[in-house]
Write a structure and sequence with these properties.
Blueprint lengths: L5 H9 L29 E4 L2 E2 L13 E6 L6 E6 L11 H10 L4 E5 L8 E2 L8 E2 L28 E6 L9 E3 L3 E9 L11 E6 L1 E3 L4 E4 L3 E9 L2 E10 L4 E4 L3 E4 L5 E4 L1 E4 L5 E4 L4 E4 L5 E5 L5 E5 L4 E9 L5 E8 L2 E6 L12 E5 L4 E7 L13 E4 L5 E2 L6 E9 L4 E7 L5 E5 L6 E9 L9 E8 L3 E12 L19 H5 L3 E5 L15 E2 L8 E3 L2 E6 L9 H18 L5 E7 L7 H18 L2 E9 L3 E5 L2 E7 L4 E5 L8 E4 L2
Parallel strand pairs: 9-15, 17-25, 37-38, 40-41, 41-42, 42-44
Antiparallel strand pairs: 1-2, 1-5, 3-4, 3-5, 6-7, 8-10, 10-13, 11-14, 12-13, 14-15, 16-19, 18-23, 19-20, 21-24, 22-23, 24-25, 26-36, 27-28, 28-36, 29-35, 30-35, 31-34, 31-36, 32-33, 32-35, 37-45, 39-40, 43-44, 45-46
Helix pairs in contact: 4-5
Length: 661
Amino acid sequence: MVARGAAAAAELAALRPGDAVAVAARPVTSAGPVPRAAVGGREALVVAGVPQDHDGEPNNTAAPRTAVGFSRDGRQVRLVAVDGRQRDSGGLTLTGLGRMMRRLGAYEALNLDGGGSTTLLAGLSGATALAPENTPSDGTPRPVPNGLVLTAPAGSGQLAGYRVEPLGGVGPDVTRVLRGLTRTLTATGHDAALGPAPGAPSWSAAGGGGVDPAGVFHALRPGSATAYARRAGVEGALPLVVLGPPARLRPTRDRIGLAERGESAGFGLVGYDAQGAAANVEPRDVTLRFDRSRWNVTGDGRGGFTVSARTARATGMLRATVNATGATAELALGVGLEALPVAGLEDAARWTGPGTATAPGRSGRGLALSVPAPAPLPGSATAAEAAAVPPRPVPLPELARSVSLWVAGDGSGARPGVRLADATGAALTLRGPAADWTGWRRVALPLPPLPERPLTLTGLSASGARGRLVLDTVAAETPPTGPAPVYRTRPDPIVADAAGVRVRPWRFAVGPAGPVPARTLDADFVLTGAVDRPAFTHRGVRFLPLDTGRATLDGGGVDRMRTLRAALAAAAREPDTGALAVVRRYAPRAVDRKEAALLTRYLGEFRRTTGKRAAVITVGAPRFTAARSEGVLEVSARRGGRTLFGADAFAAGDWLSVRPG
């Protein structure tokens, strides 16, 4: 409680802990009527139609954000949730959020609570409960004491339509079904106000499959299909796409590690047809083989599977086989925890940082960290922390549940810490308890589930109270699953020898710039991955260089997608263009998963809607690869070599042949 004014301060000073007080509140308005509803926030994002500039302010960092905005006439409201602090969702600054709200039509907009509190729930038509629409940065919704809720009047409860959708699923698009397999459908009845309405439908389908009375779609022929749910003149429909038969099968996780008996974890199966188009594979379409005395594996009711352990410690393998084609996939299983060594600290002399020294360890050499006295004045450069950095980052096991280390305390209350970095380079520090003991004690620090694996150990620290800690033997408690399965796939049909490339009408090469002329390579030209070259068309193929110098979340992805969409539109209009080839330099840290998926999606849509071809050629990769996804050819040319391509943009089958360099 805070008192303002001498009289109020005296009243507050007279109170003692435990005294009962009453609280009264009323709105204070400078002008106009008392509002019927109010919501509080921190910063104004848009004021009178002008996005506000928050550059230089402490809260203007990229983060998960929640905002509310109103149109100029007050008749439209925008509720916006922006994900962040994730590998492929970096969040927005306040300045960027204000610009977004203005683009969405907000004349006035306010920043609400963000970070891990950013959560957007919505009720779908006919639903009786809300479901999350975003991905909270904590991994799960955070309990918060307040929220902004919009409600609608209750409907009549009379059936007016059906919302038809696939039941769960783990694939990239659950409205796809591989030929010969199935998809479970649900039909949720709703009234005219989109509220719930009862009434079981009858099912039917048109196109490449049929639906049985239980609402299970059976895919029969590749192409488009539509499933219908009908009752008494009321209808709902769901478009579906039937792919080719499954040629490959992969689990969504290579390994599952459980800490103890009774714990469970989930996984899904994704099948791929011959063109690399993917779809979720449901439990009814596969046969599972595993040791049933050690594991329980059941369908999760959402198109995936749940694994639990029947024993306290075991390892094993699960094998899934598609009933229709025999395509198989394997998944390594493990239960129980074992301490795997991470850093023995025998090399403590090579760890560097303030307050760091070697000392006798628990068994051999250890690392001593001496915490200085706290800074005497705010802003002083002296920090109450000692930190040690290893000679090189130390990888942690990918399935590690916790990190442990031995700590010799001096009773000072200094706290040990373990510094980590996730797969994106984001920093994470695990803090141990205050060392109020003397002598050696093992400290275990649980790993949070959210960071992007794998993790690396980047340092050890001691902080808080002035004191001296000695650290030894860092380990990671990890389920013993064993190695992940290794999949050996056949070379893609476009991989050919020199004769197979030369039968094509013309050729081009991919490799480093150098003195070897294209004609020596029997090629029309050589692509080096130079991004300053504009798009060009040669003998029916439009080549599009894409600059991968900037990371997706730094704006590079937006620029690349704009360039791609313009090139696709141009290639679609040109009757003499039969294919588009995207050329980019190898830059795995610049292009995140969402951008890579969007690139494949746009090229796949271009291929399906125009009948023209598409390819992605990556220059300077560590090794040569050739595959296809969504019918789009994907070739990575090895750095230092020259890969030769034979092309025919209007061929009846594959339009490229490739000889690795």
